[in-house]
Amino acid sequence: MPLQSINPYNGETLEQIETIDETALEAALDAAARAASAWGARPVAERAGLLHGVAKLLRGRTPNLARLMSLEMGKLIGEAEAEIGKCALVCDYYAENAERLLADEPIASDASRSMVVHQPLGPLLAVMPWNFPFWQAFRCAAPAIAAGNPVLLKHASNVPRCALEIERLFEDAGAPDGVFSTLLIDARRAEGVVADPRVRGVSLTGSDAAGRRVASIAGEHLKRTVLELGGSDAFVVLEDADLEEAVATAVRSRFMNAGQSCIAAKRFIVVDAIAETFVARLRTAIKALVPGDPLDPRTTLAPLARADLRDTLHEQVLASLDAGARLIIGGHPLDRPGWFYAATLLDAVGPGMPAYDDELFGPVAAVLRAADESEALKIANDTRFGLGGSVWTRDSARGERFARRMACGCAFVNGLVKSDPRLPFGGIKESGYGRELGALGIHEFVNAKTLWIR
Predict the structure, then answer these.
(1) Under 8 Å CB-to-CB from 17, ≥6 apart: which residues?
(2) What is the pLDDT of residue 179?
(3) Is 228 a catalytic residue?
(4) How high is the pLDDT of residue 76?
(5) Predicted local distance difference test score (pLDDT) of residue 1
(6) Which of 72, 81, 167, 228 is catalytic?
(7) Looking at residue 285, what is its pLDDT?
(8) Which residue, 327, 427, 439, is CA-closest to 384?
(9) Is the C-alpha dihedral spanning 240, 242, 243, 246 positive or negative?
(10) Which domains does the chain have, with CATH numbers?
(11) Could you say which residues of the chain have pLDDT below 70?
(12) 262 is an active site residue
């Protein structure tokens, strides 16, 4: 069955792309296996050269690649251009730092010399989502390839052209055969790739259900995995916060990418002393968002990537309202072509509502009120997710104390939760495990081998 590329702005089919057959899949796996030994043996400087080359191509092709993202998954053109720039940045970061990050680590012992050396594991399978179709793939691929591991990309089925363009970037930069390949296959066939002995590790960004399935298969075959499974990040506003800055960041965090981001602020936990003011200001800012063509720079609210995502989101909103949440603005699909949902603000959200308990993957902000700082922390940690979170206060020392007690993988004080090539990224609890980016990211898929010499 072919993969369909559909424009979320108007529902029109852009193209249909055939999946690869078993012969082509076998050829890709064999090529990755053959490449593993030679690529891992190359000096880090040579591997860095490939990543610098890819970064240069990304920057040179930004307009076309950004337009492709906007057409295929609905991302605002400005956000798409920024995403391509960030992909180039992560390639350059690992090209410039891999040698240092992978250097031998001398350790004193009873040996004449002893150390830890970092050696590649072999081919990795990257199972990536559609919401950041370039960034998610490069966030995994750049450190893996710098470490000497070939990468096989199984991308989301609704962004096949993005997947093929990523493969083309590596080809045009001179990657040896098998170092990077895109596999146009469905989820069922991907399970067989996870189990294949030629694949030595799996990185997945996606739903918790997909993560459990992949981890189960990988566990049967004793393969290393990194899982990033979404979140319901807390955005905590204390009574001494700079409300102007907090509201501006709240809108950006929640409605960027039409709210389709794992690290978007989803639960706005506001202390009672300023709750009414915060809600009023947030409503005004949300009302100003403009839905429209993602290719039009004047558009500030994009469509959702698929019709089923919009429908699921609306069901979650209705269920939250039925359970007692208060609708401030929005709360309905937009009556226009494409898969748009009105920018929505819910107040008085509490336990037992989807807006409290689950991840709302779309342009819906949920306000949860707290009596004081102590209750705000309790609510922030009262979730099965643990990806990111932020706290807003004019007292940065107070903010740091609060952030240290947040049960998540990334905590920010007076700042937008974001990924940065220099810092490790990942979650705890049902947001997954393992880390991408930074020094920890490049070490996830290497053999940290002890070397003892007399």
Answers:
(1) 2, 3, 5, 160, 161, 164, 184
(2) 98
(3) yes
(4) 98
(5) 79
(6) 228
(7) 98
(8) 427
(9) negative
(10) 3-230+429-453 (3.40.605.10), 233-384+388-413 (3.40.309.10)
(11) none
(12) yes
